[in-house]
């Protein structure tokens, strides 16, 4: 862009923003409409500002410069180094002045080398001058460890470790661990229970909110980085204690119920802009990393406090508008941190342009950015290096967010691009192996920290303190604490029996009550949801033989002796896959005073005494999340109807009298439905970081707070039809993060945890398979155990992929026998056959799979459906040795050739995305006189079309087998499968088989939006590919 053009852009930006400010006058209520600057104009201005501020920093000493302390001497300021470090990481992503050496390493190295600047043996950071923070005569020496400085440095170092493969990750983790250690001492608290202002005894009497909140957020964040369960709970306990005090002392703004905090418990004075910002940042970080009290914070009301700082003339005020005694403009320091907040939170991003328009007033003729804007009465003209560092960080947050938030709205696919830095980060994190004593990763905070060894012996390190060792192998799926007792819903390993257990405060078992449904003795109920409401414990379980969900309850006081309340059968959740999929939609309890609601699928039910009052959530395919309003529950759901693109969007269904907020896919993925600031509100996630936080939030809220199917056996078929789906999804997460910068920014912070979780779950499945517990009862007429080829094939594919893609994969004792048995169909209910169907359906002598007549499947005597035998062929193609296993490999190719003959000529799948589920006699039907089947004497035939999950299996099998056997067919299969996947006619997870060949994600953004929210474990792979498609990577 020419100098004249750039000048015109800058003039246009300032004119548009100042016009907006003039219209709004006293409050920042929203963005301008007609005169709002375009993204290109804003980007140009941000690049100019960023380059200008970058040029003000000394590359050799990025945090050194004039201070705002007495004497205004030039010093090294840890907070300055931290802000430069964070800004430089964003500068690299935004490709701003790439010819200049990045200063992140220099800033980070300084912080590590000066972690004990005063030499007292305590790790922490402060300010380089002696300081009497409270004016009480207690002067702290230079480099005293201040909580806010330490918190900001911890934030910067953690971010550096996550985003730069050259960062010394181990040294960073060790340094942070040592820096946080003093705060874990319960004596290190203010009188109210807050984290103290500093580590000095003289500062401990003061209950100051902003440093405590910021550090609490980082404590919660770091708790996700350590494998030590004791340390996890220590970190979280301190964070919880501080946030509990924050909740006790929050204030309501006079304007629309926004939340804010005074400076301290003692000082009933609202914070200025930066200290309010520290509180906001601490709370949002605590919530993002699933702090246990996070749901008690009103996120919208907390963020809305930023709107209390109005525009006065052409400046942002330093203090909220309801402080009429102070009308000072914000300092450049204040404005820098505020810009960081508004540019990283879509809910308040409308404030960005007004703040940016004001920045030129802080720049003097010498090119310095001054403490106050030009012409501020009574203030000397002073340029402070720390404040310029804050401005630089704010501007770079805005530029980085702008480039990463422009969600692509067109195109059927997207190329995958990853830098060498991204690949190295993934390789580093995926190499982290799991220690036996480590906490199970990716579990919700309500469970505490849980360890589970190779025998599934579990220990809970409880949120309320102490440990609970369980006396037998199994998984504590739900955990409820009271002052006198603790309750667990416990699934035994390996039997899968569901037990309701009570333990005393001393940890001794008081009772263990089986949760059993009246029905087949071999069927164990599957836990779906649980809550304590009033004086009762409520449980929903699924009975697989009956294909129904049931609600039961117990009085807490007499749980050990009282009988379970009579089960109440839930109405259908109306899963679109059919009535045998009632275990799929998520079920969640919601409380509103003395009312208890149960929501799942399209069902909303209020629990009343011994019954349910139910209604349908109209226009919804399934509910994603819900919120309580004064008039009852409101719901965010996937819409039942498709839009113009053929994909389903999102909608909010609210009670009568409540206005639903608008959902705009152009703003990102909707989330966070909440009754806040006197109305129903919703947010949108659009940057990679926001999408990553949304993914983690959904994961930890799904099925037993993230346990999913951990350690379950296969009696009810949950391993192949749920667990294998999501374990493949976890491997997809690693694979796509390695190949996409944007996807890595979404999933990178989780990769080490994902690796550990893969190891743990696959090791337990290996135990089940080795011990013969992969046989299922769910699909036989008499609930006898059987091996089904489609299920063992899925397991073999999972094991094969784990061994080939995960470095240092654990040895699998059952792998070789599994591979041998799958290829030979040893002990399976199916047989490999070359007869039994007419030539109208199958070429004479061609291989296919059948359920022999007299076998225990419901359709004995019939060929298996396409997807069943295609999955077997897929597993054979991926694992067979061409010489040793020539016979099963030839059969696999014949099976897929049959599919091509009937459905996909030349490998080209139907453009309609529609084909038959079954074929042969099973398609045509038969009469009793035909004596086809013992278990199904007569049948009209199954002429239904294959469901999307079955079509996806067919397509992935076709891709694998044709790649080896028929290159021309493989090319057609790639082209047609990519087209169907991009349009949503195959699941997004089909990209696992496509992207490795095409280097692209084949998914229209509208389709990706439909699958972007996780509510059930089996959906995880679809969510991973969808978020990877939506995550901008900053490439232009």
List keywords for this structure.
1036 residues, alpha+beta, Methylamine Dehydrogenase, Chain H, 4-stranded antiparallel β-sheet, 28 helices, globular, disordered N terminus
Please tell me about this protein's structure.
By secondary structure, the protein is an alpha+beta fold. The chain has a domain at about 450-685: Methylamine Dehydrogenase, Chain H. About 35% of the residues lie in helices and about 15% in strands. The protein has 28 helices and 31 strands. The strands form 11 sheets. It has a 4-stranded antiparallel sheet, with no helix packed on it. The chain has a 4-stranded antiparallel sheet with strand order 15-16-17-18, with no helix packed on it. Strands 19-20-21-22 form a 4-stranded antiparallel sheet, with no helix packed on it. Helix 11 (about 330-345) runs parallel beside helix 13 and helix 19 (about 790-805) packs parallel to helix 21. It is globular. Mean pLDDT is about 95; it is low at about 1-35.
């Amino acid at each position: 862009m020419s100098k004249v053009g750039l000048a015109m852009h800058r003039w246009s930006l300032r004119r548009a923003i100042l016009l907006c400010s003039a219209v709004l006058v006293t409050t920042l209520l929203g963005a301008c409409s007609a005169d709002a600057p375009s993204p290109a104009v804003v980007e140009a201005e941000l690049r100019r500002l960023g380059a200008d501020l970058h040029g003000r920093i000394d590359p050799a000493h990025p945090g050194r410069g004039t201070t705002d302390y007495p004497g205004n001497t030039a010093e090294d300021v840890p907070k300055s180094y931290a802000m430069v470090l964070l800004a430089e990481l964003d500068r690299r992503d935004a490709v701003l002045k790439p010819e200049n050496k990045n200063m992140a390493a220099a800033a980070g190295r300084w912080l590590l080398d000066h972690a004990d600047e005063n030499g007292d043996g305590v790790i922490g950071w402060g300010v380089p001058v002696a300081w009497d923070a409270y004016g009480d005569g207690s002067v702290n020496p230079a480099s005293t460890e201040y909580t806010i400085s330490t918190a900001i440095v911890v934030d910067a170092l953690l971010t550096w470790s996550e985003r730069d493969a050259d960062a010394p990750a181990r040294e960073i983790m060790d340094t942070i661990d040592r820096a946080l250690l003093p705060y874990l001492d319960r004596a290190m608290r203010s009188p109210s229970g807050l984290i103290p202002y500093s580590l000095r005894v003289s500062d401990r009497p003061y209950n100051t909110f902003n440093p405590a909140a910021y550090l609490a957020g980082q404590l919660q964040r770091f708790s996700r980085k350590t494998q030590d369960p004791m340390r996890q709970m220590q970190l979280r306990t301190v964070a919880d204690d501080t946030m509990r005090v924050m909740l006790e002392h929050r204030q309501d703004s006079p304007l629309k119920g926004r939340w804010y905090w005074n400076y301290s418990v003692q000082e009933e004075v609202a914070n200025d802009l930066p200290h309010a910002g520290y509180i906001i940042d601490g709370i949002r970080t605590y919530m993002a990393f699933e702090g246990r009290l996070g749901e008690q914070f009103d996120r919208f009301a907390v963020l809305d406090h930023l709107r209390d700082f109005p525009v006065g003339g052409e400046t942002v005020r330093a203090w909220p508008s309801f402080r009429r005694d102070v009308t000072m403009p914000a300092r450049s320091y204040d404005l820098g941190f505020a810009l960081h907040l508004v540019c990283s939170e879509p809910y308040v991003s409308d404030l960005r342009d007004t703040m940016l328009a004001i920045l030129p007033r802080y720049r003097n003729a010498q090119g310095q950015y001054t403490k106050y804007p030009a012409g501020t009465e009574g203030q000397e003209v002073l340029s402070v290096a720390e404040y310029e560092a804050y401005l630089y960080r704010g501007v770079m947050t805005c530029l980085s967010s702008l480039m990463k938030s422009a969600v692509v709205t067109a195109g059927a696919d997207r190329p995958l691009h990853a830098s060498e830095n991204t690949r190295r980060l993934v390789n580093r994190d995926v190499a982290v192996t799991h220690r036996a004593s480590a906490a199970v990763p990716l579990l919700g905070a309500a469970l505490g920290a849980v360890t589970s060894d190779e025998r599934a012996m579990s220990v809970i390190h409880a949120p309320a303190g102490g440990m609970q060792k369980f006396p037998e192998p199994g998984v504590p799926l739900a955990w409820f604490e009271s002052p006198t007792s603790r309750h667990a819903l416990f699934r035994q390993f390996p039997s899968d029996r569901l037990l309701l257990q009570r333990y005393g405060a001393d940890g001794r078992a008081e009772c263990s009550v089986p949760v059993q449904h009246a029905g087949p003795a071999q069927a164990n109920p599957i836990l779906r949801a649980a809550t304590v409401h009033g004086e009762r414990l409520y449980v929903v379980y699924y009975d697989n033989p009956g294909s129904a969900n049931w609600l039961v309850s117990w009085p807490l006081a007499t749980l050990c002796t009282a009988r379970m309340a009579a089960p109440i059968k839930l109405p259908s959740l109306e899963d679109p896959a059919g009535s045998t999929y009632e275990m799929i939609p998520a079920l969640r309890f919601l409380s509103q005073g003395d009312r208890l609601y149960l929501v799942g699928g399209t069902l909303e039910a209020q629990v009343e005494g011994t019954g349910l009052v139910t209604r349908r959530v109209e226009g919804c395919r399934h509910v994603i999340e819900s919120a309580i309003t004064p008039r009852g529950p409101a719901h965010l759901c996937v819409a039942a109807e498709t839009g113009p693109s053929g994909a389903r969007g999102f909608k909010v269904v609210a009670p009568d009298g409540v206005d639903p907020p608008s959902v705009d896919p152009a703003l990102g993925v909707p989330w966070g439905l909440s009754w806040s600031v006197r109305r129903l509100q919703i947010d949108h996630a659009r940057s990679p970081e926001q999408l990553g936080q949304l993914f983690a939030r959904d994961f930890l809220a799904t099925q037993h707070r993230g346990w999913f199917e951990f350690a379950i056996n296969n009696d009810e078929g949950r391993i192949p039809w749920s667990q294998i789906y999501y374990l493949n999804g976890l491997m997809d997460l690693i694979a796509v993060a390695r190949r996409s910068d944007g996807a890595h920014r979404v999933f990178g912070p989780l990769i080490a945890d994902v690796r550990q979780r893969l190891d743990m779950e696959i090791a337990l499945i290996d135990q089940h398979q080795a011990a013969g517990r992969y046989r299922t009862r769910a699909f036989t007429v008499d609930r006898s155990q059987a091996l089904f080829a489609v299920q063992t094939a899925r397991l073999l594919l999972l094991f094969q992929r784990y061994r080939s893609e995960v470095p240092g994969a654990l040895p699998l004792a059952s792998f070789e026998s599994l591979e041998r048995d799958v290829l030979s169909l040893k002990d399976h209910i199916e047989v490999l056959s070359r007869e039994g169907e007419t030539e109208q359906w199958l070429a004479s002598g061609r291989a296919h799979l059948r359920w022999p007549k007299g076998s225990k499947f419901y359709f004995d005597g019939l060929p298996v459906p396409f997807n069943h035998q295609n999955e077997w062929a897929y597993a054979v193609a991926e694992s067979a040795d061409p010489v040793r296993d020539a016979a099963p490999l030839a059969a696999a190719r014949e099976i897929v050739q049959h599919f091509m003959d009937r459905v996909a000529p030349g490998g080209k799948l139907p453009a309609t995305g529609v084909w038959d589920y079954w074929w042969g006699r099973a398609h045509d039907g038969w009469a009793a006189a035909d004596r086809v089947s013992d278990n199904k004497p007569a049948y009209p035939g199954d002429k239904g079309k294959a469901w999307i999950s079955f079509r996806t299996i067919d397509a992935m099998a076709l891709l694998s087998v044709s790649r080896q056997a028929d290159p021309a067919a493989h090319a057609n299969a790639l082209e047609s499968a990519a087209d169907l996947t991009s349009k949503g006619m195959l699941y997004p997870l089909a990209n696992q088989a496509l992207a490795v060949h095409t280097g692209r994600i084949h998914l229209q953004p509208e389709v990706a939006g439909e699958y972007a929210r996780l509510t059930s474990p089996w959906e995880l792979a679809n969510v991973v590919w969808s978020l990877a498609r939506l995550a901008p990577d900053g490439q232009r």
